[in-house]
Amino acid sequence: MEKTSAPGRKTGRPLSFDRDEALEKAMLTFWESGYETTSISDLTAAMGVTAPSIYAAFGDKKRLFLEALRRYAGDPGDLENAMELAPTARDAVANMLENAARLFTGDATPRGCLLASAAATGSKAAADVRDAAAKERRIIRAIIVKRIEVDIERGPLPDATRTEALADLALAVTQGMSVLARDGADRETLLEVARASMVGWPQPKA
Amino acid sequence: MEKTSAPGRKTGRPLSFDRDEALEKAMLTFWESGYETTSISDLTAAMGVTAPSIYAAFGDKKRLFLEALRRYAGDPGDLENAMELAPTARDAVANMLENAARLFTGDATPRGCLLASAAATGSKAAADVRDAAAKERRIIRAIIVKRIEVDIERGPLPDATRTEALADLALAVTQGMSVLARDGADRETLLEVARASMVGWPQPKA
DNA sequence: CCACTTTAATAACGATTGCTATGGAAAAGA
DNA sequence: TCTTTTCCATAGCAATCGTTATTAAAGTGG
């Protein structure tokens, strides 16, 4: 009862579709319409792959979504590296927010944030999907916290900095921008929100 | 083909359920699980009313949701009055955010914001439900903008205040707090986010 | 060319979706 | 009591849901 295409297979009919390309289409569809509110037939239409092939290649709908979620979230290490590279924690978070503002209003992608859609997704059966999205957010939060702590230790930020509050604010603003983007807000509006949310950051010590 | 119970009816079997109470239960169910991801059978279970009675009393699922949405949002005039009563626009918005933080983490109600769930709801068929939620947000935004403009005119806020950015920020923080609440954040965390988002507000002139 | 392996396509599965037709029960007015 | 009006409950509608069994097709290794 082997269902997945074994990586080291030597024979058999080859896949007629690009697995990675199909996953990308699935991600965009989930991004547009959410997890539960995207049907398998929506996915077959978008991916150009029939249902049995989707099940053979990805397992089931939930696994396909979780794989799409990982693809959307990307490698946390990349975010961590980018934030370490920024001159200050403040710059790092500002960049993160501005990138989100641009991502949520991109022309080639759906509006808003896939993680935000997943969080709002409703029924009890989708609890583990919500948890997966929450987990991604927790990872991002931890990276922000860590970057702020570096700046407190190195000097630019005062010891009394409310680290967790700033991280939670950044997270909330990000997810809030997703809602505004879905409402039709343009890129400039979101960038203004991102900048306005940074005004309250503590001033550098020196 | 009269379906709704006419307000001025003189005879006939009386309703066996309290319409207002049933609507309240429906609102809580939608609040918990979103629009599309709440089924009619979820509603019948929560409301204690059979499907045909729901349809007779409320029309269809969409109309029931929209009525629940209006009940959730309340009278915009109340918000407007509350904000006019606050000594400054800053206090008014701070109160709004703190009230949201408390609402989203209430014990007797689902976590998060019903409007946020509605915005994220997915399929194209639910576009008008999304629009209805967006409309409520636009109303709130307009009230915030108006209150800030009053303070600019009366003096407490400088002429150069970025009115729309502050209003959009408040909206984004509100909807973002909803996501954090859904992730399990506690009331104190949300209140910290609310306060942190206000730190950047311009200082009073005098 | 023949086995063997794997994917593709068709068709359908049972379950659930939103919604409603039908028939009888419950109240009020005559 | 009888008629009229309205609502409740059962049962079921067509459609879609996520998923899969079945069979044909397309490759590789011998």
Describe the structure.
Chains A, B: GO terms for molecular function: DNA binding. Chains A, B: InterPro entries: DNA-bd_HTH_TetR-type_CS, Homeodomain-like_sf, HTH_TetR, Tet_transcr_reg_TetR-rel_C_sf, TetR_C. Chains A, B: Pfam families: TetR_C_13, TetR_N. The structure is a homodimer of 206-residue chains. The first copy, chain A, is mainly α and 206 residues long. Chain A folds into 2 domains: 52 residues, Homeodomain-like (Arc Repressor Mutant, subunit A); 123 residues, Orthogonal Bundle (Tetracycline Repressor, domain 2). Chain A has 10 helices and no strands. The longest helix of chain A has 28 residues. The first copy, chain A, is elongated. The N terminus of chain A is likely disordered. At the A-B interface, helix 7, helix 8, helix 9 and helix 10 of A face helix 7, helix 8, helix 9 and helix 10 of B. Chain A binds a DNA duplex (30 and 30 nucleotides) through helix 3.
What is the assembly state of the chains in this entry?
A: homodimer
From the 3D coordinates, which CATH architecture of the largest domain in chain A would you assign?
Answer: Orthogonal Bundle
Judging from the principal axes of the Cα atoms, what is the shape of chain A?
elongated
What are the low-pLDDT stretches of chain A, counting only 5+ consecutive residues below 50? 1-6
The percentage helix of chain A is: 55-70%
Rg of chain A, Cα atoms, Å: 20 Å
Biggest sheet details of chain A: none
| Element-level helix/strand string of chain A | HHHHHHHHHH
Count of the domains of chain A: 2
Total of helices of chain A: 10
Number of strands of chain A: 0
Which band does the percent of strand residues of chain A land in?
under 5%
CATH top level class name of the largest domain in chain A: Mainly Alpha
Largest interface: A-B, 52 and 51 residues
CATH superfamily of the largest domain in chain A: Tetracycline Repressor, domain 2
CATH topology value of the largest domain in chain A = Tetracycline Repressor, domain 2
User: What is the terminal separation of chain A in angstroms?
Assistant: 66 Å
What structural class do helix, strand and pairing data of chain A support? mainly alpha
Mean pLDDT across the residues of chain A is: 92
